[in-house]
Amino acid sequence: MNRQLSGRRPNIVFIIADDHQHDAIHALGNQAVQTPSLDRLAASGTVFRNTNINGGTSGAVCAPCRACVHTGNPYFQATVSGTLQDDMNNITMRPENALLPAVMREHGYRTFATGKWHNDFASFNRCFQGGENIFFGGMSDHDQVPVHDYDPEGHYTPEQRQVKAGFSSELFTESAIAFIEEEKEDEPFFLYVAYTAPHDPRTPPAPYDSMYDPDEITLPDNFLPEHPFDHGARDIRGEYLAAQPRQPEEIRRHIADYYGMITHMDAQIGRLMTALEKNGQADNTIIVYTSDHGLALGRHGLMAKQCMYEHSIRVPWMMKGPGIEAGLQLDDLCYQFDIFPTLCESVGLQVPDSVRGISHYSVMRDRGRTQPIRGTVYSLYRDVQRGIKDERWKLILYRKSPVTGQGCRETQLFDLLHDPCEMNNLAGDHQYAYRIARLHEQLRSTMNAFEDPYRHLFQ
């Protein structure tokens, strides 16, 4: 039965993963990983292949990135603090900002959340009218997730927290499906599903734990035993998940488990899509899939995500649904925080004044434009790394932190067209001095526009 209602805005299912590399999807070029549900989403919708995070000053990069998604803003406009401290101030979203789920709620959407919310409680309750199995935190064991159910008063105390039986991806999917099955015909819904997969600990359940043989895993072309210099994030927890120098057999094991986590999550996404079909909602629902950030996992000798390399700053972004072209893949430069205005325009809502992201809806509707929406994108990590890239070139600057003492002064220039794995640093070649100077000037301009408080370190 098709329940699409004439004149009613489409439903929205917003799915966000944790640590999913932008290209760790079968349909997007990685033939080693099996992702039939995401492949189906890519085939029936539009893929923005060059979507980039802005980053943050917190070692827990996921929190600032999620704040950017929810507010549609660069990091320093998304949160109330830009300090280097990993505390609640760093992940509290500015109360004056519009929030994506809250905007949908204000325009008649019934909003519901399940899964990870790595930001403040007050923002959560501004956004959602209901929820189940909500995880307020950064990470946990996947079979021991401490979750809350929705509290209309916003009191999510430790005493209310409980550990429920089941694997995280399955637990969140069950809550999402139950919500879909209770869908009301008289109002659209906004369903927020935030998986903690494929974040470590990478412990996929059977049979996914043995689906990928480490001996058959091919190491990435940019695998290195060690990063060539101190990039300012050597002491991050994630870097200690594998021995240093990196051993090929250990990295293959990590990748095999990572793929198992992704394929298991993909199966749960497939269950969500099936629930929409069975309930007659598939044709009137926009599905968004993205991730908070990427991950190194052995590339460049790194394991974590606190870097400016493509594997860590780029994220998947796919959309399908009414009015969205099927089978379209775009390479235009995007920020992760552009998702907010793009989704607003897709459902016919005015983009709030507080949003600094730019809608890419016109890109989907008009492929014949002559000028890209964005000429460059820039990313940051704490006070030690800044990067900027255009459609071909990327400049990364490294500085030693005056606060922590970590990092060193280095410059990298990569030709992404001929060196997509970022292995050939051209910064020492004098013939590229003009290119570095041009990108550096664009970086200074962008840091000023984004009010980066550490911009003086990178002048």
From TrEMBL:
Gene3D superfamilies: Alkaline Phosphatase, subunit A. The keyword Transport does not apply. Its cofactor is Ca(2+). It comes from the Bacteria. Residues 10-347 form the Sulfatase N-terminal domain. The keyword Metal-binding applies. Keywords: Calcium, Hydrolase, Metal-binding, Signal. Pfam families: Sulfatase. PANTHER family: ARYLSULFATASE FAMILY MEMBER, ARYLSULFATASE G. Belongs to the sulfatase family. This is Sulfatase-like hydrolase/transferase. It comes from Paenibacillus chungangensis.
